[in-house]
TrEMBL record:
InterPro entries: Formyl_transf_N, Formyl_transf_N_sf, GART. One of its GO terms (biological process) is 'de novo' IMP biosynthetic process. Pathway: Purine metabolism; IMP biosynthesis via de novo pathway; N(2)-formyl-N(1)-(5-phospho-D-ribosyl)glycinamide from N(1)-(5-phospho-D-ribosyl)glycinamide (10-formyl THF route): step 1/1. This is Phosphoribosylglycinamide formyltransferase.
Length: 192
């Protein structure tokens, strides 16, 4: 079965969406491990509660970003993933670890890329006067949020929207988008 490792730094809502879809029989994957760079990341607790291996790798234990990335991805590779999903993982990865996993690592980003790579995407969309906002799933390349886009979802920006309201309305669509893309990648792998 299609083996997936998730990297997450935060609350883990995208991970939770993957777990729910798998439990409902909508996602033919094996979630083999979750890694985080934050000890108190909600994603680690969600993984443990679901019986998924969960591991915190402390960036402060390493002299450089490269050393951290090498150690974390050595652990990730130990699980032999077919796909690595960055789901709210808030670290920029070194080019060497990205290059070795080209085409096997995706990221979900809360904007309609190529608009608004990086942080504060909801505020930036509002500040620009955009009429729509959304989320993108893309392949990870060494450049930040610049890899080939696999799929996007869109929502209208309505009068009175704040960054918080926009984020809250986008999140369920973001979850569905990620589940859909992972399901498509698993199905493609099953056909090959």
């Amino acid at each position: 079965m299609f083996r997936v490792v998730v990297l997450a730094s935060g609350r883990g809502s995208n991970l939770e969406a993957l777990i729910r879809a798998r439990a409902a029989g909508l996602l033919p994957i094996n979630l083999v491990a979750v890694f985080s760079d934050r000890a108190k990341a909600g994603a680690l607790e969600i993984a443990r509660a679901a019986g998924i291996t969960a591991q915190f790798v402390n960036p402060r234990d390493f002299d450089s970003r490269e050393a951290f990335d090498q150690a974390m991805f050595a652990a990730v590779d130990g699980h032999a993933p077919d796909l690595i999903v960055l789901a709210g993982f808030m670290r920029i990865l070194s080019p060497s670890v990205v290059a070795l996993r080209a085409g096997r690592m995706i990221n979900i980003h809360p904007s309609l890329l190529p608009k608004y790579p990086g942080l504060h995407t909801h505020q930036r969309a509002l500040d620009a006067g955009d009429v729509e906002h959304g989320a993108s799933v893309h392949y990870v390349i060494p450049d930040l949020d610049a890899g080939p886009i696999l799929a996007q979802t869109r929502i209208p920006i309505v009068p009175g929207d704040s960054p918080e309201s926009l984020a809250a309305r986008l999140l369920p669509k973001e979850h569905a988008l990620l589940v859909s893309v992972v399901a498509d990648l698993a199905a493609q792998a099953a056909r090959t």
